[in-house]
Write a structure and sequence with these properties.
Bound molecules: adenosine-5'-diphosphate, aspartic acid, magnesium ion
Organism: Vibrio galatheae
Strand content: 15-25%
Protein name: Aspartokinase
Order of helices and strands: EHEHHHHHEHEEEHEEHHEEEHEEHEHEEH
CATH architecture of the largest domain: 3-Layer(aba) Sandwich
CATH superfamily of the largest domain: Acetylglutamate kinase-like
Family: Belongs to the aspartokinase family.
Helix content: 25-40%
Number of helices: 14
Largest sheet: 8 strands, mixed
Keywords: Amino-acid biosynthesis, ATP-binding, Kinase, Nucleotide-binding, Transferase
GO cellular component, one term: cytosol
Shape: globular
Number of domains: 2
Length: 450
């Protein structure tokens, strides 16, 4: 195993010149950091997604393009020698302009990925130049040269063997001489088309890259000093967790804790790479270590919230005492590449939630063709505006008594679906979006503050 560390900086960490300078200081502080993975500057991906969805109004389109230029200009203006970086960034902005025009005529997932990737392509030009000006021997690397994925635009899957082989050829040798700065979130398919790993995908990229180069550590620098007992924006009294196991942190990420992309810990776990999460604004505050072995495994560890849930309920009297019904349902879902998240069943009905959405955003939809095929089998009801609340902990399916505490705290809430038992690490349920934060706050007070 190499001795080097991979550091990932999220959007707010590279939001502007000052923020990028803090990242450079963090990189300088750890001589083992040989590889830096950066997100787009804060807000940029949202602007690009709007353009990619197709903005017909030309005034709005140029407004968005101006905002993009301003974000990057503000960094360029503070660089000592911005000539090359400005020319690189402006070349990308020209691409954004033409792609945005194309999207206003006909949007597509492939075009979206090409367009939204421009955020990371620009931020890495700026960060590399800033680091060079501080005396760091930095080199920018286009991660699309090695981060091979399939062609599932908007939520591409990495091709692990190829990534590893390509990283060995070109990325690892470069890291011997330079601190390499590269893009999170983006990759390319076998034909060389740009792809993305889904919103928030830079964490996942960083973990995939750390795995490919056999890094000894992965740091995720963000805007909070570690993983908290719940999103500190929802519960003021949420507190940071010093150490957490891979399984608990994976559950948190999967259940919507935005702090980590859901797939981030899979590569780290495969290669047993310890992950650190900290704040680039306040690195001195420390953060959370995610490891295999942890000292404490409390019954309740954290609460996570995932909104934009779509619940599908399928009902059919034919299901009663019949076999093969669920197999047929899942055959249809698989055919349409619909991934199911949670599921509960009764004698004649099954409720399921659709897996989260891709780069273009919004609630996951049940495609019309899939719905039509399901309707030949059963009745189909689709509900939106739901959020999933997850209580994460240890040995939950083997412990007694706590369900009473959880459910009596929630006695005023209408719980739409409850899932419990399959995993020892969680108990989760769906509630209406309008009360979801309140449910988290009440549970946090009861289970974590007393
Ligand atoms: P980045 O741009 O660095 O990737 P994100 O915005 O994706 O940052 O993730 C950081 C945010 O995640 C925090 O600002 C916080 O609001 C949110 N968050 C959600 N759940 C948690 C949690 N359990 N602990 C800490 N932060 C959380
Ligand atoms: N820039 C991308 C996003 O905003 C990826 C990331 O930041 O992780 O979703
Ligand atoms: Mg993120």
């Amino acid at each position: 195993m190499s001795s080097f560390n991979v550091a990932k900086f999220g959007g707010t960490s590279v939001a502007n010149f000052e923020a990028m300078s803090r990242c450079a200081a963090i990189i300088e502080n750890n001589p083992n950091t040989k590889l830096v993975v950066s997100s787009a500057c804060s807000g940029v991906t949202n602007l690009l997604v709007e353009l990619a969805n197709g903005v017909q109004d030309q005034v709005r389109r140029s407004e968005l393009l101006t905002q993009l230029a301003q974000i990057h200009d503000s960094v360029l203006e503070q660089l000592e020698d911005a000539t090359q970086a400005a020319s690189d960034v402006y070349e990308i902005l020209d691409t954004v302009t033409s792609l945005a025009e194309a999207a206003s005529i006909q949007a597509s997932k492939k075009l979206t990925d090409h367009l939204v990737a421009c955020g990371e392509l620009m931020s890495t030009h700026l960060l590399t130049q800033l680091m060079k000006e501080r005396g760091i021997n930095a080199a920018r690397f286009d991660i699309r040269d090695i981060l091979r994925t399939d062609s599932n635009f908007g939520r591409a899957e990495p091709e692990l063997e190829q990534i590893k082989a390509l990283a060995k050829q070109s990325l690892v040798p470069l890291c011997q001489d330079f601190v390499v700065v590269t893009q999170g979130f983006i990759g390319s398919d076998a034909e060389g088309n740009t792809t993305t790993l889904g919103r928030g995908g830079s964490d996942y990229s960083a973990a995939l890259i750390a795995e490919a180069v056999e890094a000894s550590g992965l740091e995720i620098w963000t805007d909070v000093p570690g993983i908290y007992t719940t999103d500190p924006r929802i519960a003021q009294k949420a507190s940071p967790i010093a150490e957490i196991s891979f399984s608990e942190a994976s559950e948190m990420a999967n259940f919507g804790a935005k702090i980590l992309h859901p797939s981030t810990l899979i590569p780290a776990l495969r290669h047993d790479i310890p992950v650190f999460v900290g704040s680039s604004k306040e690195p001195e505050k420390g953060g959370t270590w995610i490891r295999h072995q942890v000292e404490s495994s409390p019954l309740f560890r954290a609460l996570a919230l995932r909104c934009n849930q779509t619940m599908v309920t399928l009902r059919s009297a034919k299901m009663f005492h019949a076999y093969g019904f669920l197999a047929k349902v899942f055959e249809i879902l698989a055919k349409h590449k619909i991934s199911v998240d949670l599921i509960t069943t009764s004698e004649i009905s099954v409720s399921l939630t659709l897996d989260q959405t891709d780069t273009s955003g919004g609630a996951p939809q049940l495609p019309a063709e899939a719905r039509a095929e399901l309707e030949e089998l059963c009745s189909v009801e689709v509900e939106h505006n739901l959020c999933l609340v997850a209580l994460i902990g240890n040995n939950m399916s083997g412990s007694k008594g706590y369900a009473k505490q959880v459910f009596s705290t929630l006695e005023d809430f209408n719980l739409r679906m409850i899932c419990y038992g399959a995993s020892p690490h969680n108990l989760c349920f769906l509630v209406n979006e309008s009360v979801a934060k309140q449910a988290i706050q009440k549970l946090h007070t009861e289970l974590f503050e007393k």
